[in-house]
TrEMBL record:
Subcellular location: Cell membrane
Superkingdom per UniProt: Bacteria
Transmembrane segments: 52-73, 85-109, 129-150, 162-182, 188-211, 238-260, 280-300, 312-333
Lineage, top ranks: Bacteria, Bacillati, Bacillota, Bacilli, Bacillales
Membrane topology: Multi-pass membrane protein
Classification via CDD domains: MATE_like_8
Annotated protein name in UniProt: MATE family efflux transporter
UniProt-recorded Gene Ontology molecular function terms: antiporter activity; xenobiotic transmembrane transporter activity
Pfam families tied to this protein: MatE
GO annotations of cellular component type: plasma membrane
Main subcellular localisation: membrane
Amino acid sequence: MKSLDRKFSLWTLAWPVFIEVLLQTMLGTVDTVMVSRISDDAVAVVGFSNQLFNALTTLFTTIAAGAGILIAQRLGSQRPEDARTLAVMSVTVSTAIGLLISFVLFFESRSIAMLLGLSEELWPLSDTYISYVGGGMFLAAMTAALGTAIRNTGNTRGPMYTGIFINLVHIVLNYGLIFGKIGFPEWGLTGVTVSDNACRLLSVFILLYMFRHSFERTIRLPDYLRFDLKLFKEILRIGWPMGVNMSCWVFSQLAIYSFLAMLGAKELAARTYMNTLESFCFMLGYAFALAVQIRIAYLYGESRTKEAYAAAYRALAFGLLLVLANALLLYLIGRQMLGLFTSDPEIVAMGVSLLGLNLVLQPGKMLNMALGNALNAVGDTRFTMYISLGSLGIIATFCSYWLGVGLGWGLIGIYWCMIADEYVRGALSLWRWRGKKYLNRAESNRVPAGSGHSMPSVSV
């Protein structure tokens, strides 16, 4: 038990997640720098398309995220076979959903670009990027499900090491295939799509090997045919509100990118560059938020509710310090960083105007991530869904259009709406966590010492 406690400690879980997220962020930055050498239009297409991909990934990350919480809870309550079955089902179902998404994106890329209002001059580039990167979404689905399952067993180092290796390979392939270096053909944006899918495939092979040995019994091929309806219903009970929550966020971002597309390609490019820079601000906070979700789920499974309650505030405190420090650093060097991406003075000016607002945005984002993940960890996923439906629908989406497009405030108006949304959801999540509804329920359901383990209810 002590070894499991160490395995599920906040710092043990958080630092590998941070390294992994840092590498992903750096990779995204390198990608953006390399793509910007093709053209600002290419950057706009990549940023726009990635918002679409993020929206669609919620269809399979719903399963992976719900299963991940239950895996940690089952391990906390000493039920490893259930945890193993949950993990296998999450991989199987996520892959099936990913295959369906890949089929649609590969064959309907032009229709999707037209539907979402992408400028006509960007259609040829979007045909390439949406078709080929989107066609490999089933690999992204497998990677997400495998990585989530592995992390929620307490092994956050394995995905980290995989991320280090894959990121290095990705940088080399991007450099070679975009610019025709080190013996590769010069394929431009097409090279980015080849590099992305090659790295996804390699990641799947590595994580599959790791996944096979993540539980007491080795996972074998026939296990992927097993389906436990009762456990799957539990995944859906926790997962579907999380899926709606994630969908609200990514679709609001997609809507915002559509509004920016209405404003012009330069506004779209500026937001894409700023999105890349902002990633450095919240990555440490995100690492603590993800780690505390795993830890609270494990403690909740063991009915250690007081420790679970305190863990959320500990993660929030560390996260706030880190994101504020990062946001201040970005404010000081942001202009120089933007100059790495583009020499267009209008795009740089737009980005610089957002650096101060980012200092206000990041604490709200950290509050929302930490307390929202804490609520999800104990199964209170419907509450986070309800506040996301309201805040993201009204504040982040409707008000962004009203202020940014309708009243002509542009990027600044949209950014203020994003800030307001984060603080509203964060404050409501804090209020709910302080009420201890699910923690008190677990306390009342606790089995007296010596009578065996109890699994707290996660019904909603």
